[in-house]
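User: My instructor asked us to take a sequence, write out its structure as tokens, and then describe one feature of it. I'm not sure where to start. Here is the sequence I was given:
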Amino acid sequence: MSALVVEDFSKSYKQLQAVDSLSFEVRPGDVLALVGPNGAGKTTTMRTIAGIITPTKGRIRIDGFDIVAQAIEAKRRLAYVPDDPHLFDALTVEEHLVFAAAAYRIDDWRERADALLARFDLTEHRTKPAIELSRGMRQKVAICCAYLHRPALVMLDEPLTGLDPRGIRTMKETLVEHAASGAAVIVSSHLLQLVEDLCTVILILHQGKRLFLGNIDEARQAFAAHTEDASLEDVFFGATEGRTAHGGS
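Assistant: Let's start with the prediction itself. The structure tokens for your sequence are:
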């Protein structure tokens, strides 16, 4: 069973069609890159999958549960880290993990929480309130909270924002590890080198529509004149500047 199924999803705001008839699936073990120019519908898509906004049309299921009709069960299997995660200023780093464990009703979570804090170099900051943390450290706290309940689907919007080089390496390693353990991962980023390094599937959105869905080799065939060593940047500009759309089912 796919970890995420998006069927004929559309979202409109009055006269603006933010996303138009979008369908795709993400399987366990996939790392899907969600890319496109500003205004393509990436954040709207992720926020709708996360249940933050309601689709105008279509159906979205996470691990078999409908995000609208079975919202609690669907959200229990999801973790979403936006590009600017909002923490509770008065809570410490450790208290954020306590809150996440309670929200997801996790038992025996403290050992995992300690391991996540150590992995992201947060152990010595565990008693600091969020208001005292740097942008990068706040990002790390949000990621630790997201990983704590071992979600079936992890979604990250610009996950490297504010991270130092060690944090970037750790972030990349943990994404690969989560996919290897059977989770599905969606990464939205303008850092195309990150996408090319990590992602097994690419979904290109343009003006709210699916322009391409497939792997990097298929993307090169569709948008880079079959150039075998074309970079994802070449593919991206070829796709968004009007070449023939292509993609799997």
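For the description part of your assignment, you could build on this observation: The radius of gyration is 18 Å. Try explaining in your own words what that tells you about the chain.
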